[in-house]
Input
Amino acid sequence: MDNLLPRLPFASWIDNGVDWLVSNFGSVFDGISAFLKGIVEGAVDWMDMVPSIVLAILFALLAWFVSTRRIALFTLVGLLFIDYLGYWYSMLQMLSLVITSVVIALVIGIPLGIWASQKSTAKKIISPILDLMQTMPAFVYLLPAIFFFNIGVVPGVVASVIFSMPPTIRLTMLGIEQVPKDLIEATEAFGSTTWQRLLKVQIPLAQPTIMAGVNQSIMLSLSMVVIASMVGAPGLGEEVYRAVTQLKTGVGFETGLSIVIVAIILDRITQHAGKKKQGGTIQ
Output
């Protein structure tokens, strides 16, 4: 079989394409790298200026406002426990990386989901790309990110964005498509334009589903924390990776538990925010 079909040099084509992009658009990638690095490090510096106890209380108040008192209490105790273990600054680094990645994923993903829900051609193009993004091993994303942005926090952000974006696009598209047809027909009967229908009917009714996509994007971004540490991304993932390489079981358990606490806090807050959106829409 190998003699009948010549082997196409796909690997060489991809390597040549990456080299061409780096050589011709290196300054663009450097600018993006400096911008993302400035955002992540600036967010860390800003949060680090606030005493840990004050910041923990602020996060707890946010959780109380968005969700419940039980989640607020867990947020306060969990964050203070991370500070007690000595991983507060690493937690801030991880949180900044995750927030930056998720915000970029939402800024790109939600408009793409809206576009795909309105245009069947766009949906046919985007859907297989999303399948590729979700099935490709996460480690593969790190290779081009290293070539384009070197070692550090930026490849971690880029890989997290690619890895966490598909749920936002899919659930935005799904939420808008699930809006009852009779409501769409009613808006058309009253002469609403496409933008009026989107902004006043479809997107408000799709908010719970869109929030579920936000929740999934946050969880996927958190799952990339340890993987991103392999290319120099700081944070709790770096502590886990160091503990694994040095066979420090206790440190690995502490840092892993800290990641779990942050994941639970973000998960519960976004879940309850979605439910509140749904209740507000129904009312």
In short: The chain has twelve helices and no strands. The domain at 24-282 is CATH 1.10.3720.10 (MetI-like fold). Residues 10-49 form the longest helix (40 residues).
